[in-house]
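Consider this pair:
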Amino acid sequence: MIFHSGVALAVAALVAFGVAFAVDAALVNRTYDALRSDHVVVQPSDTECYDQPVGFKDSNPNPRTAPGFLAPNVCYLSFKYGNRSYSTLVAIDAPRTLFVDPRDPGIEMTADRFRRGAVNVVGDVILSAGLLSSAVALAVMHQVHLRRRRHAARRAPGTRRRTSLI
C-alpha cells in the first residue's frame, strides 16, 4: 500500500482520536462499574459558589485561584474521605455529592457525572467507531484513486478514455 504523506497523516489522526475515545469510554465504564457495585457518598467539606464571573490573578494551579475566570453559576467543592482530599467544579444546580469506591479511594465521580455516566460512554463509543470507520474509508478511497491513476497512465498515448455510457 502506498500513501501520500497528507493522507497518511489524516488516517493516523483519525485512528489516534478513535483509539483515544475508545480508551476514554473504557476508563469511564470501569469507574462507573466500580462505583455502581459499591460506593460511599461523601458530602463536601467546603463549598464556594459563584453566581457571577470571578477573576483570579496568581498562577497557583488550584481552581479557586487559577489564572483567568471562573464561569458564573458554578460551585467549587472540596471533599475529604479517609486520608484523601478531592476537589471539583460543578454546576450551581447540580448535586453536591461525591461517590468514592471504598476499596479503591482513587476511583471517584461526582453524583451528576455518575447519573449521566452511561450516556457519556455511549457517545464516546459512537464517536470512536465513526472516527475509526472514517480512517478505513479514507485509506480505501485513496487506494482506489491511486489504482485509477496508475491504470490511466498505462493506457497507450493518444487513446482517450470513454466518458459516454452509450
Summary: The chain has a mean pLDDT of 81. The longest helix spans residues 111-154.
